[in-house]
User: Which sequence fits this backbone?
């Protein structure tokens, strides 16, 4: 079973997909060519991170102007 969790850790369109198979709550993905060409930065995050979303990007939260979290996130707002 492939994990469909994703995260956008920065306030831009950079998206990281979970590379871990099976059921889990600690996701891990690799950000390639971001620091420099050929780089591989491993990012780890937990399921309950407010930036986590599953499947396609649902769009940015529209409840609070400037919120960078995905639409339907839980918890309070951040900018």
Assistant:
């Amino acid at each position: 079973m492939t994990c469909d969790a994703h995260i956008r850790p920065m306030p831009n369109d950079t998206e990281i997909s979970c590379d871990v198979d099976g059921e889990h709550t600690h996701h891990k993905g690799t950000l390639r060519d971001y620091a420099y060409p050929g780089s591989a930065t491993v990012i780890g995050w937990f399921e309950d991170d407010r930036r986590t979303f599953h499947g396609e990007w649902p769009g940015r939260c529209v409840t609070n102007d400037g919120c960078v979290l995905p639409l339907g996130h839980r918890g309070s707002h951040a900018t």
Remarks:
- The mean pLDDT is 91.
- The radius of gyration is 13 Å.
- Strands lie at 5-7, 16-17, 26-32, 40-46, 52-54.
